[in-house]
Amino acid sequence: MHDNGEPGWHTSTFSGTSGCVEVGRIGAEILVRDSKNPDDGQLRIGLSAWRTFIGAIRSGEFDQRDGASSTGRASPCATLHG
Q1: Positions of the region Disordered (predicted)?
Q2: Which domain holds residue 51?
């Protein structure tokens, strides 16, 4: 969080210039927004729920079973860290 009360926004290192989502934190809330349209609103998620979500990503709960990418890697948008 910056001194002005705004979150420090972060993007996945895999998103490159194609955009993805940005994630920030204010207190016990995680904020998620569209990197291409940052003024179009934010999704607010409690820290506990965010940690559960990231744990599920890391455990492979959302991995594609059919039609997985040719690289075998997770979607760039699924690599944000909590």
Answers
A1: 62-82
A2: 1-63
